[in-house]
Design a protein that fits this description.
Helix content: 25-40%
Largest sheet: 5 strands, antiparallel
Order of helices and strands: EEHEHEEH
Number of strands: 5
Distance between the termini: 42 Å
Strand order of the largest sheet: 3-1-2-5-4
Length: 124
Amino acid sequence: MPRGKPNYIDPIGKRGGTFNVTPVKQKPVCPVVYFVQATNGLIKIGNTKQLKWRFESLQGQSPLPLEILATTPGNRTVEFAYHATFAEHRQHGEWFKPAPELLAEIDRLNNQPAPLGYEAKERA
């Protein structure tokens, strides 16, 4: 089949034809570093551009309920800086013990004004 002419089955079951799809413009997405806590107390520090989708994915993979504690604008570099800062509290991978220093940083993030045009915390 020629490029640009997708093969599909139309509603009456005949194969063939073409159709045009107008791409939907998506809002620019700000990458965030997130802090998610499981009911066992461990806190995951991660990074995503799609917080709602990522949280749903994590929850689907977790045997424990999860809660978003905080987010802050940032990419993988910021995420890795947090990992390095709290390395002594690392339990496994990106999961950390809820040490007082980590909880203080989460409180700080939740109490600072959000950057202009950014929602500081998105609940899934």
